[in-house]
Amino acid sequence: MPKAKVSETFILNQALKIFSQKSYYNATMADIAQACGLLKGSMYHYYPSKEDLMKAVIAYVHEYFNKEVFAHAYNTKLSTRERLRKMGELTEKMFIGPQEGCIMGNIGIETARVIPEFSELIRNFFDDWMNALTFVLKDKYSEKTAREVAEQCVSEIEGAVMMMRIYNEPRYLQDALKRIAKRAY
Amino acid sequence: MPKAKVSETFILNQALKIFSQKSYYNATMADIAQACGLLKGSMYHYYPSKEDLMKAVIAYVHEYFNKEVFAHAYNTKLSTRERLRKMGELTEKMFIGPQEGCIMGNIGIETARVIPEFSELIRNFFDDWMNALTFVLKDKYSEKTAREVAEQCVSEIEGAVMMMRIYNEPRYLQDALKRIAKRAY
Amino acid sequence: MPKAKVSETFILNQALKIFSQKSYYNATMADIAQACGLLKGSMYHYYPSKEDLMKAVIAYVHEYFNKEVFAHAYNTKLSTRERLRKMGELTEKMFIGPQEGCIMGNIGIETARVIPEFSELIRNFFDDWMNALTFVLKDKYSEKTAREVAEQCVSEIEGAVMMMRIYNEPRYLQDALKRIAKRAY
Amino acid sequence: MPKAKVSETFILNQALKIFSQKSYYNATMADIAQACGLLKGSMYHYYPSKEDLMKAVIAYVHEYFNKEVFAHAYNTKLSTRERLRKMGELTEKMFIGPQEGCIMGNIGIETARVIPEFSELIRNFFDDWMNALTFVLKDKYSEKTAREVAEQCVSEIEGAVMMMRIYNEPRYLQDALKRIAKRAY
DNA sequence: TATGAATGAGGCTTCATTCAT
DNA sequence: GATGAATGAAGCCTCATTCAT
Hints:
Four copies of one chain form a homotetramer.
Chain A: H1 8-22, H2 29-36, H3 50-68, H4 80-96, H5 103-111, H6 116-137, H7 143-167, H8 171-183
Helix pairs in contact in A: 1-2, 1-3, 3-6, 4-8, 5-6, 6-7, 7-8
Chain D binds a DNA duplex (21 and 21 nucleotides) through residues 1-6, 28-30, 38-46, 48-50.
């Protein structure tokens, strides 16, 4: 039995890239397989369907954000400002990288009325994001206001990422993050 | 000549609805035809291809916003506040109606790296929107600041519309518009 | 009731041109209608179907050759040589003109195994052609040989017309006609 | 990997047969697939499009003639007469077999004004044929005359094959080949 | 596990034909 | 007779998925 040619993480990263570039429906299993150096049929040894692969990508990205981005919100050893700065910095890095935008927003919009299972996973992601921001902002605002500001932050970032994608100009996200940083203190 | 079963405007509205619900790639010509009470093949009397139909929908929505929403920005008979209020109100109506979100953002994200012709048309839409807002905001801010605030407004609205779509809660857009209204004076 | 926009002969000539250029299956009723300055649907006032139109074109061309080309074979007022010369000259003119080759050969080959009705009509055309040539050549040869030479002439001309079409060089037909002229005396 | 249900050569032969019977535009991928015992979609594992399949068939036939028919022209161990006899015999066999005529001539005529890429490939075939005949005939004629006679031979054979197809009588080709054999010495 | 042949459903598009005006 | 909207069948092609090797 031949060994796995590629790691699961590698596949998830490649799939993330392709889904980000081409959207869900327009990306084919062959596209993703090719990006992995595999043939179409081989994908099915890793994931039983395109939908499952997409879910795995969503879970992978979600987990990554949880560990690498949102976790900073709960690191009470750092100052409020420092925590927000860190999260903003990492958010920028994530959304300007190979993901070319925010896959959660992209897939969320594309499949909102079509694949409810995706929507639920994606809502969980945004919930975690908003919870993390709310947690930090509670240092500064009332619980209620903190939540409102958190929602505003996420909306504004997602809108800016959209603009960034449509105009092909990272400036939109960078400006939004600067505004948020200013506003947050 | 037999009376047309449908008007061009009717087709554009139905196509808008279907594209909004299902996204571009997942919407089929048969879906749209059915929504129009026609057969698949009959669509091709009106538009020579799915891509052309999408472009016509984009143009239709753009024109509609120009006339019905953005135009208010230039109505100097009204006060700054009144003009912004009007635009916000109409924006809400547009994005909560049958469009179920903002088709410009949705299609823009989905096809950004795939169909550059769409992207260009969509950028033109956002340019007009931001220009209109900038024009109004110049009453209050410097030219430069006005433009920055306009970009922020559009980002925030688009982000909120995205959240609204993903969470299926109009509240996100309504909140964003309230924030913007407050901030703008 | 509006008058006919175009004459039947005009339609037949345009159809001949389009079928010659595009072949039978690849030519559409819309192509032919357009060449006539009509719309697709209007063709059906003249001919009940594409097949009937093709048959009418075949009959039209056949009749034309009968009257204008083959008839010379039976004009015993002229010398054998003169009759053959005349036929060759007219054949060249017909096949190099707007017909762009020999529609009988073209359609005959294309539909041989598919639309037997065409084949029959086309065989009638070639029969008339070979009969005419045989009639002339009987002045010089025995009945049997005359027929053989006639068959050879027609084969060679049709083959040359084919080469002319494929190489886009009238030379092939011209050379064949010269060879035949020489051989025939 | 599962054993292929069909070999590439088998597909080419079946496609040759179907294209020969039905012509290019009237033959469907489903027809060819069925002749191969495959489903329509499976054809696309072998050839990316109908046009590409047609090109492959043309190349296949060309190569076959090069190796099996034209090559005899250059076998100087045989006499002129013997070489011509061999070529004639094989030509007859090829054109009366499953090909049901000469696909090069058939497709050449049908697509001459529509798919220039085919025309070029087909011209290459006829060039090779005429070159081979010219090479043999140089034993007997001047270079110039040899080429003329070669062109005549090819025209006559193609015309006879056309007649054979239209009349459904192999006699036309057989007669032409006899005439050519006689004339060539 | 990797492959790649095969499937079958379905998508976009074309087109001969019909028919109401 | 002319139009052009509408039909519906069919054609090319794509693609998620299966499966034998």
